[in-house]
């Protein structure tokens, strides 16, 4: 009798939750929903009751329901997710360009964590850590055998908490132990410099809240050094995306007029929208137009956009828009192919669901999802070949990835988990045997090929073919789209 009561209570909880979701969806869509699947809900309640009565040890209701929501959302596609309090806060901090840590950019080399660069005025910078230093232990735990993500998590933590790094430096006889205190780190997503007389390099590592203002400052500094730039390289390699308004603004900065930048297509009416290069689409209503401070010459300067398999989402929107309008030459390797919109739906003050709600399309109507952007000029990452880029896992490789949308049967099959694990292992081996790429340096092969193209010199092209899908016999009609409202400002 007790088990039945628990099951009935569970069913009431589940049915009530499902009903509330139905009411929410009904308000958003305006009706035409199917009735609740009561048999399946009873099964869910029965499982809930069995766990409560039969599991080896007691399980909290909150944990069970939270994990049920997590599994339900995660089963949809690789980018939909339930965000608990910690995940929600971390995502918000990331989009604002901040995190708590030591302030170092790192990569794996020979199984250890190598410092690419310490961020200016960070705990690592003030402690004397230099580019090329190697971290061998974190809090006396050997780094050898850790993944890069695991090492990064160990170095992050709460503000004012302590961590101890063991550092090895070339030329030193012995490693040295360095205690550090974590701080909130502000990340600047834009870097720029002159890389040759008359030619500039502008890198965007992620599209954040401050990306446009940072870009305007960097571009103005470049033109202050040389008011007659002959060419600009926009570097979007390894840019995982971020906020949609930043991508719209960066695209608009190089395009004349208020051109269409991207459109979206989804189930909800407000997911079928068109985004233009107007201030209302890339800047908050209360603020002015950040692009108004850009030099007029930016609209006409020759541009080459660098992309690779790590360029995703918002960076693909920029590359696709500039490619469609023939405003820039896209150079590098095929992009990741994440052409889906994730919208935050808050559940409580500190939890939310990140839900895939639409697909992105370039101005010419090309679907980005599971295809990506194919460069105009295919160039490998190094002179010896594609390096790690050929081993990257792309959107089309992910299990349960969203189909392209033009023809659902045309999308390539996702790789099996074993195949993905094998590629991860191969990538790890390659990473241990390869020097980390220093974007923007003289050793940056793709950047040097971009400069060669500007100057009319020979460019070493890749022998690799872009990934393609099967021919699409007939594209499915896209729903009608309408101009978007700018309150959709947190998409990735």
Q: How is this structure best described in words?
A:
- This protein has 492 residues and is an alpha+beta fold.
- It has three domains: 2-59; 98-186, Pdz3 Domain (Roll); 190-483, 2-enoyl-CoA Hydratase, Chain A, domain 1 (Alpha-Beta Complex), CATH 3.90.226.
- The protein is 30% helix and 21% strand.
- It contains twelve helices and 20 strands.
- The protein has helices at 2-29, 38-54, 61-74, 85-95, 123-126, 148-155, 211-225, 244-254, 279-282, 314-324, 417-432, 445-455; strands at 81-83, 98-101, 104-109, 112-118, 134-138, 141-142, 162-168, 176-181, 183-186, 190-196, 199-204, 231-235, 260-266, 273-276, 303-307, 328-332, 340-346, 352-361, 377-378, 482-483.
- Strands 1, 13, 14, 17, 18 and 20 form a six-stranded mixed β-sheet that branches. Strands 3, 4, 5, 6, 7 and 8 form a six-stranded antiparallel β-sheet that branches.
- Helix 1 (2-29) packs across helix 2 and helix 8 runs parallel beside helix 10.
- Mean pLDDT is 81; it is low at 6-31, 407-414, 426-433, 469-480 and 484-492.
CATH architecture of the largest domain: Alpha-Beta Complex
The computed structural class is: alpha+beta
Instruction: Give the oligomeric state of the chains in this entry, treating copies of one chain as homo and distinct chains as hetero.
Output: single chain
How many domains? 3
Q: CATH superfamily assignment of the largest domain?
A: 2-enoyl-CoA Hydratase, Chain A, domain 1
**What is the CATH topology assignment of the largest domain?**
2-enoyl-CoA Hydratase, Chain A, domain 1
| Total beta strand runs | 20
Enumerate how many helices there are, as a single number: 12
Poorly predicted regions: 6-31, 407-414, 426-433, 469-480, 484-492
CA-based gyration radius:
25 Å
Q: What best-fitting shape do the alpha-carbon axes yield?
A: globular
The chain-level mean pLDDT equals 81
The level of helicity is 25-40%
CATH class category name of the largest domain:
Alpha Beta
How far is the first residue's CA from the last residue's CA?
48 Å
Q: What fraction strand?
A: 15-25%
- Biggest sheet character: 6 strands, mixed
Family: Belongs to the peptidase S41A family.
Keywords: Hydrolase, Protease, Serine protease
Domain PDZ: 88-170
Region (Disordered): 456-492
